[in-house]
Task: structure prediction
Amino acid sequence: MLQQVEEGMVAHFIEEHIPEEFKSIFRRQLREGKDDSVESRILEVADKLDQIYEAFAELQRGNTEKEFVLMYRAPLIKIKGIKLPSLTVDLNRKKPASVGWFLNMIAER
Result:
């Protein structure tokens, strides 16, 4: 839901503010981070953590609408499925100050 809103805002921004001759380049640059590289997967984890943080803030404020609960849980599930060597190792070892440790702490609460 939130991602669709963001994508719509980006599309609107491109249409309104980017000169026609640069629109295709701008769109391509935005998509290039969406591949199977380690960097792309790290970026995806960071985006999901941001989504978790935003939803958690709403839940802390007492806003327990279904959308915020889903917005909190869905990225946790997604992150656990992202294959990153350091994430996999940290999830197994539960090292403090790692992404895996952070996710396990959130999942326990």
User: Anything to note?
Assistant: The chain has a mean pLDDT of 76. The longest helix spans residues 38-60.
